TrEMBL record, chains A, B, C:
Full protein name: P2X purinoceptor 4
CC terms in the record's Gene Ontology section: endomembrane system; plasma membrane; postsynapse
Intrachain S-S bonds: 126-178, 136-159, 142-172, 232-242, 276-285
GO molecular function: ATP binding; extracellularly ATP-gated monoatomic cation channel activity; purinergic nucleotide receptor activity
TM regions (residue ranges): 29-49
């Protein structure tokens, strides 16, 4: 043969695998059952359930939150407060969103105050908070210029009477923001001052973009009319697509009561899930909302959630707020796919590869477990030794 | 044979597959074409286009934004304003970054005010905003202590004249922050008070870390000199690597005009894309910037973006700002890879698996479609029955 | 044969591949070595190291940060300050968390001020900052109403003396917030005013949820008792599970010193890594903390991190703060898996597919490199021509 003929043969002869057809229906059935299981997994799970015939897009998402509502604490009486003499006037007023949402805007999150401790402070000298390291019996226990890590200022060196109704110990005097905060909620018992914020509503505007398909979607459907959107309130059963949520409903959906979370604050997760099949009409692509309280209500350290912020009136005067409240964090989880032949081919190709597993199992049965294994082995395997001679065991095989 | 010999044979004999070489050039060609398609996909798409020969790293990224600029509204005249009698003085001043960027720092985001409604408020009694549930004809329509959800305070029980230039209805009086906000932009028409912020610049400092390769990168190239960086402004064509952006340019790049977004606010996405091949010199690893307006300019509910924040002068006096503006959110999308033999081997291995698909197709042709299918079947398949006898159909096959 | 018999045969005959057993120990050994490498990769790397026998869950995570501490700058003397005449009184006071953490709450992040420039401002007329475009020799160099982009207000048209100790040039007068900020840290040298914040502590509460397994975890172990948690401070060696961190320790763990970062600010990444095997007891599922300074300490443009915020005392009076400080961003990286037969089967199946690579390599050796290649080729390959005749080269093969 010429070289070109040889190359042509090597390139364009079709080399297929020699097959031994074993007419044993039991093994055939086993083979088909395993194949069916694998095919069921590939077709049912990978292709259909996981939508393996689709190409999926990455996504970008942004959520803005607009809280609305007003709550009045004018009705509280002196006997409702723990310290009726202190600042009950400061606690008796009208609170609106600008007072209670701090900071006024956060990316994909919002905080609403549910309980408050207000302290009007000036830079001055006053007794330190009563705590382990601040007590003293005489001035010699206090050191001028010393600052306790958990204290509130720099010690003056004087020992003065503690500013606490039940304590009669001495504490070191400090320079700093005075008076120091008296760390107890304004209301008696485990009540929240602003439990009325459960009636506040929040409008969540969630924008999502699937760059691969050049699609932009919102959680506010175009088909909903303006007046519906202005008056509706989300309800998982009756109004599942309304983007306005009552805060109390959100907390209830987490399995907690608003009053149990309001006194000490907490952290709530709002998960917006987009599970979209862009082979169907886009109006079926609507988000689902899930709510869960993510902080532990039985934590031993730092239960709930609070932080301090201040209104500064001038360089030496401020109103300090210890704000307990609920931090809502909005997370988006999305999956949007469209029919695409490439992932379909890949998934089918990988699936065909998996089918080889059926042969591996059946071959094992045929060669090692079957009563006719010697016969099948003779037909399936041809033995060749180096040097061309055949092994004895193989003589009977060759026909 | 001894047992050890048998074990040795079982372990170290090489079992290869018997091949039937079919000298049919058409099937051979079909086989090669399918193989070439699969190889093209593996080599061209998986290995080269998707860089299947590389190991990719996860990444952490942080972006900080520093806005610069100052805008003057001193030139506005009384006739420019909707309510010239109200607070035009408050609107005529110099606005700098500290006035307009609220909150002053946000993680991977920044907000710039473009339009404002300013209301000086004190805690007092005043007429409620004119809305559906607040109108009244006599004091009996108002209930002492009632708080409307979308209202601004707690009703006193009195019915008073509405504080609205065109309305002559009565509304319930409230206790709360007074006067209530008159919800209309300061300027006549659909103009934004602070349209000058389109000349503001923002310096985006984007830090990215690829932990697998222990690499840290920034969007500010070391090779750029200091004076260039201080004076440059990003332009996709002439200055694509300058990290300083004019806000008006960003809005224009989204396909909108600044004036159309400034009056009611909006949400803009800045996507920084790092597509890095660490097998090349690191100086080729530079980010790309993309901008898109993600809120819907034709939304029916809550179009644009605004929120309220206040400056508190003392416990009973505040300046309420309804701030319309643009929230910029910075997202980072990165892909950084380096040559690694393991993913290369895996991808080639999986690719070889896919090649089996070519054989499946050609075998189907050979056994069921080809005119010589009976001959090829005889040579390809050997039939074996239980009990060792061969089926009739197979007699002619065995040589 | 009847049709039903034919269909039954086609469906339930078992077709296995004909194997040629080559009794050559060298090739057998090569085959086994390659198989062992692939098996080692699958079992060792995919199944065991990467836990390929487990199903992994997505996760949601939220982190809150609570900073504690107080720092005093009362000890600074006039000679410590750059401008002793200016506002040393404003710099000499007690600073607490409410003064230094701005904004008071950020999602998965917190900022702590380490250095400050304070400027008391009113809306008035004053000389512009001394910079390239603001200098003038006479009023004709200034234009009434002109606003420089990097300037601080709207020019009045007058040329006045610059307000800078070393400069004797004229600058244009502006209307705006006056006086303009003098951009130099308060302390002499490269010192930070508030270097004492390195003793502040931050309590990081990290909540993580694995929805697939309906598991919620915290970084605060239930087994730790309350008093331990209140007094402990994180240390990678002695207290690796304490959720309270000293800021100075965090900076030291990044390989920098607090004093080097405090003067100009910086950006620090806190990565919380959960690597959990839910087949073991959940108490082994504890997070690891890693810290890295992500901004470049040698950057040419905008080194460090600062921003401006203000306290507004009334409409025409404010205190402007240029706050240098450290922005801490908390990122969570999690991996939680549980035994699941499906991923195990998939990984084993794909692994078996990879084993085919061993055969490809050995077949190449057998057919093209081995000294007995002609013999092996005769036994391995059967040649069939169209029309049923066999090629010459194949005559000796058929037995």
């Amino acid at each position: 043969m010429s070289l070109s003929r040889k190359v042509c043969d090597a390139l364009f002869d079709y080399q297929t695998l020699k097959i031994v057809n074993i007419g044993d229906k039991k093994i055939g059935l086993l083979h088909r059952i395993i194949q069916l299981l694998i095919l069921g997994y590939i077709l049912g799970f990978v292709i259909i359930f996981k939508r393996g015939y689709q190409q999926f897009s990455t996504y970008n998402s942004v959520t803005t939150a607009k809280v609305k509502g007003v709550v009045s604490t004018l009705d509280y009486r002196d006997e409702d407060f723990v310290k009726s003499v202190a600042y009950p006037a400061a606690y008796r007023r009208i609170w609106d969103v600008s007072d209670l949402v701090v900071p006024p805007s956060e990316p994909d999150a919002f905080f609403v105050t549910t309980n408050l401790i207000i302290t009007e402070q000036v830079t001055a000298r006053c007794p330190e908070e009563l705590m382990k390291d601040s007590t003293c019996e005489s001035d010699s226990d206090c050191e001028d210029g010393r600052t306790l890590l958990l204290g509130h200022g720099s010690q003056t060196g004087s020992c003065v009477a503690a500013d606490h109704p039940t304590a009669h110990q001495g504490v070191c005097e400090i320079r700093g923001w005075c008076p120091v905060e008296y760390d107890e909620g304004p209301l008696k018992g485990n009540q929240a001052l602003l439990s009325g914020v459960q009636n506040f509503t929040v409008l969540l505007k969630n924008y999502i973009e699937f760059p691969t398909f050049r699609l932009k979607l919102r959680n506010i459907a175009d088909s909903q009319n303006r007046s519906y959107l202005q008056t509706c309130v989300y309800n998982p059963d009756t109004h599942p697509h309304c983007p306005k949520f009552r805060l109390g409903d959100i907390i209830n959906a987490t399995g907690h009561t608003f009053n149990s979370i309001a006194a000490k604050g907490g952290v709530v997760h709002i998960v917006i899930t987009w599970n979209c099949n862009f082979d169907r009409h886009i109006r079926y692509c609507v988000p689902r909302y899930d709510f869960s309280r993510i902080d532990d209500s039985r934590a031993q350290l730092g239960r709930g959630w609070n932080f301090r912020h201040s209104h500064y009136h001038n360089a030496t005067q401020r109103t300090l707020f210890k704000a307990y409240g609920i931090t809502f964090r909005v997370a988006v989880s999305a999956r949007g796919g469209k029919l695409n032949l490439l992932p379909l081919a890949i998934n089918i190709g990988s699936g065909l590869g998996l089918l080889a597993v059926a042969k591996v199992v059946c071959d094992f049965v045929v060669l090692y477990c079957h009563s006719n294994r010697e016969l099948y082995k003779q037909h399936k395997v041809r033995f060749v030794e180096k040097g061309g001679r055949k092994r004895r065991a193989t003589i009977s095989i060759t026909v």
